[in-house]
Amino acid sequence: MSDTRQTVSRDEALTIVDRAVSEMSIAHEKLPVRDAVGRILAEDQLSRLQLPPFNKSAMDGYAILEGDKRDKYEAHPQTILAGDSRQPELRPGLAVKVMTGAPVPDGAGRVIPVEHVTAADDTIEVMRTSKTTHICRQGEDIQVGDVVVRAGTRLGAVEIANLIGCGITEVDVYRPIRLAVLSTGNEIVDDPGKLVHGKIMNTNGPMLAMLARRYSMDVVLEESIPDNLDYTVATIRKAVECADIVALSGGVSVGDYDFVGTALNDAGLEVHFNKVSIKPGRPLTFATKPGVAVFGLPGNPVSVHIMFHVFVLRAVAGMCGGESCLREIELPLGDDFRRRKTERMEYVPARLNDDGTVSAVDYHGSAHLTALTESDGFFVVPIGTSELAAGERVTFLSLLKGRR
Questions:
Q1: 43: exposed, middle or buried (C-beta count within 10 Å: 0-12, 13-18, 19+)?
Q2: What is the pTM of this model?
Q3: What is the dihedral of CA 239, 224, 313, 214, to 10 degrees?
Q4: Straight-line distance from the first to the last Cα atom of the chain, in angstroms, rounded to the nearest whole number
Q5: Which side of the chain, N or C, has fewer Cβ within a 10 Å radius?
Q6: Is residue 2 part of a domain?
Q7: Where in 205-284 does DSSP place strands (E)?
């Protein structure tokens, strides 16, 4: 293949991916809520309950009638605990002790925190007043029929907890995306015992497989492919038969032994683009056949990592009717940044600083995988930009790994 390929921008490439995967549908199924963590919702989930389900105390304190303001109150002998269904009747001049989370008696207008009173025998004296009622009102958080979690959302611990809290016991979720991971290259080995001069460990395959599982995909095939056209074609054909998405790494450039582009055509796929103005990641290739998306990722591991997050996860979301789970935020740059070539937008591995700025990590290029152990994500340098001054705001793609 000659190097006459048209380069598309990142946004053009994403639009092409969005359009292609929108025509691909993934089946969904009903699961118990607790079994659905990591899955993507197929339908909006509506609350079956009001929250809070009753007027409850936000503090340990004394409940008094609405509008009953005085310096001293008679203390009711009963204390209402969280979970109590007993409801003593309030009257003017009476205060009922309630614990945090307990239902307050009917007609209660506020709860006086225990810290604001002194108690003696069967009376309390108010030492401090507050405009806050310290009562969580029934239904103030959510009403029956309100949307709790929207379709297209990947369910994590917080979403699961909210669904359970709203009385939802089962959810419709998309089945896991099936991913095939193919690593190309005569130079890669999976066993350190086979390392000889000229060989390197296969890091792309394991990294892609682990990233896939992190995002609740099923890895249905993981193979290494030598630089052989026939073998590459056969393996691609096998992969598209069992997967929704195929992620290849390596073999997508224009070298004499880069066979992926030709192999995709020979395997009957439609190639939509094979060159994107991104650094790292220029030789990114995207192809499809009915129901299957194939990404030919560059061979260097940093390129694989960032292109998986930007493009493969975008396709996953599109197949499941959602939006990419990646978070892009605007943050100030902590240090000056300069580069010589400006014809591509660039993702720069970066760390979050304690002062809320981001700074580039020590980075030697897209083969420098260990640089990612020091990064929290990537900041974006637009096309045509050669310098960014400390303090300028940049787009930061957060990929926090919880390393701190």
A1: middle
A2: 0.89
A3: 110
A4: 46
A5: C
A6: no
A7: 218-225, 245-249, 270-273, 278-279
